[in-house]
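Structure tokens please, single chain.
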Amino acid sequence: MKQTVIFLFFSAALAPLFLAGCSSTKEIQVLPPEQRFEAAMEKFNNGDYLDAIEDFKIITVQYPGSTVADKAQFYLGECRYERGEYILSASEFDLLIRTMPSSPLVPKARYMRAMSYYELSPRAQLDQKYTREAVDDFQSFIEYSPNDSLVKDAEQKIVELDDKLAKKQYDDGMLYYRLEYYKAAIVYFDYVLEHYHDSQYADDAQLGKARALFQRKHYDESLDAVKVFLAKYPGSDLLPQVKKLESEIEQAIPKKTGEAASGSSMKSTSSAGDAEWQR
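Here you go.
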């Protein structure tokens, strides 16, 4: 009997608190999207990104037609970006661009999608998938928003990323050069010269091409490559090396002519596929 009385006492005492808790939860659940967005932004500004994500998600799912739906979607991307979840942030920004194309936040979303891939871009030796994604997105941002204040920053980042892509191709070319696969090396050097002619590796690639042609005993083409270098990169710090190569080519050309006249040159009968890439 005594235990029953105690139980009833505590039940009566806790009932108002329980009902208040239910009432509070109900109020949160029916919070208008604008107020929920303000609460989420407060969490975002305080660095509570996980809690903010939950509120932003509720807005985008339950109130997709509200005046703050695009803002909620944008800040979902911002939360993921601030947490270093760059693949997820790129996905959230992309969702805004695709599903809410008329939102005034789309230009910034394009820029931030590019920034997400920019953060994922690895060092030059690794696969450059995300680097290319970032370049494409920065270019898309510039194309769609040419007067935006962030265009200058996007252009600078494109230059930086292009240098990384150029270095990747140049390093691959040098790898083949050291392995004496000179024809393969030229393919990579030409790629740099065609696609990244404004990068800081363009003069390196031009010299690499001239050297590879020289090693293949294509002296006339090698000399042409040297002349192109001298015309395009007169201020390059590689100039002494180019001048030295030019001298070596000029010495080799008369020798080649003499060998051709005497008919003493020998032809290889090797059928190995790799030999064609070496010479």
